[in-house]
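User: I'll paste a sequence; please echo it back and then give the predicted structure.

Assistant: Echoing your sequence first, then the prediction.
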Amino acid sequence: MILSKSCEYAIRATVYVALKSRKNEKTGIIEVAEAIGSPMHFTGKILQTLVRKKILSSAKGPTGGFYVENGQDLFLIDIVRAIDGNGLFTSCVLGLEKCSETQPCPMHDQVKPIRDLLMAEFCKKPVTELVEECQQHKYFLK
């Protein structure tokens, strides 16, 4: 597992909300939770974090719900950073505090290229592309 469970759910939630937003629809917590297979209260906390970090937007009231702003450029890295921070790309794989470029741990040189590649892939993967791929593979059929 590379990403935390919260981050996995946040990615799925963002993709689902973006899919609904593409149809000019807003969606609620219950619908998102059912669509992504996450407990409702956990989903609610994740969605609120995504709103606070400006990944998603929300509106209250009878026509309210969660949505992605029209024209908003979102990338996978934005969601990862909002939920898990940069630790995946910066923390020592062995958990050593003093690991750095100048004082590398025994695994540093082997892990750094993988982290750099992962960061590059996350930075270039737009949420819109994830939405298209999910539609193509018939995920989130609601």
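Residues 89 and 115 are 6 Å apart (CA to CA). The radius of gyration is 17 Å.
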